[in-house]
Amino acid sequence: MDTDEQPQAWMLDSQEGDAYWSLGSLTVLKATAENTNGSFSMIEEHVPAGQSPPMHVHQSDDEMWYIIDGTVTFEVDGERFTATNGSTVFAPHGRPHSYLTEEETRWLMFVHEPGLEQLWASVGSPADTWTIPDDSEVEAQMNRVIEQLEQYGIEIVGDPLVADASSSQ
User: Fold this and answer.
1) What is the pLDDT of residues 80-97, one digit of tens each?
2) Domain locations in the chain?
3) Contact indicator for 74, 63 with CB cutoff of 8 Å
4) 18-156 has CATH 3.40.50.920 classification
5) 147 vs 105: CA distance, rounded Å
6) How confident is the model at residue 4 (pLDDT cuts 50, 70, 90)?
7) pTM for the structure as a whole
């Protein structure tokens, strides 16, 4: 990618973007390293209730979530947040973080440095419909994620989150 080039303007409608069934969620790549000239990426996800990835650290990727619909408990560097419609949560690189979806959730996830969006594409399968998939492929997809962690500068440092009555906002 030539970073000296000026990015071109573009637009995607609500049902546009490369859609994947990945890790039990519908993942739609809305902005990628390629179409933002390497500035950032943005992913729209529809995540079922009860999902939590292992606690992990990104070496260079800052992540930010904007909750469109749903309730999610995030833990970032030991601090817990309950995020609902309209909330924004930031997880800077180098900080352990995870989340637990308390109910079916839809969010936008922004990533800087871009490129991480390709992890979902590489482990998922193209989505035939814009619905949350069944979870029959999650274990195999997670094994493929684990094989690629080093390539994406991610380290697993703990277990997935479990429900905790002491969550704070």
Assistant:
1) 999 999 999 999 999 999
2) 18-156
3) no
4) no
5) 27
6) low
7) 0.89
